[in-house]
Design a protein that fits this description.
Elements (H helix, E strand, L loop, with lengths): L5 E6 L4 E6 L7 H4 L1 E8 H12 L2 E4 L8 E7 L3 H12 L2 E5 L2 E5 L10
Length: 113
């Protein structure tokens, strides 16, 4: 029996089913389109959104990946989510065909290299 906060995985070689804790609040976001980002870096946000919407979002500036986002989104369109990211982090979203580029200066909390 799997309960909330748990996940199961199947090991094909040994034909065993393993139960474990699921620490990822966005584990089912690809299906539910519900996201919970809590001080999550933009690299992880983009990875999660790309997986859920089968999109091709890229960060033009590596430093943008260190920006963090705290937001809960429920059943929003990809366009709506990109708008939230753009406005919240003061970034620019540019769509070029199937590729979506996010650009900007970065965030103040980025450590100097």
């Amino acid at each position: 029996i799997i309960t909330a906060g748990q996940k199961a995985s199947f090991k094909e070689k040994s034909a065993t089913l393993l139960k474990g804790e699921n620490a990822d609040p966005n584990y089912m976001a690809w299906k539910t389109k519900n996201f919970n980002f809590d001080n999550t870096n933009l690299n992880e946000v983009v990875k999660t959104i790309n997986h859920a919407y089968n999109s091709n979002i890229v960060l033009k500036n590596k430093k943008l990946g260190n920006c963090t986002l705290t937001v809960t989104l429920e059943n929003q369109s990809l366009e709506s989510i990109l708008n939230v990211v753009e406005v919240t982090l003061n970034l620019k979203v540019n769509k070029q065909g199937k590729k979506i580029e996010i650009s900007g200066e970065g965030c103040e909390n980025i450590p100097a290299e």
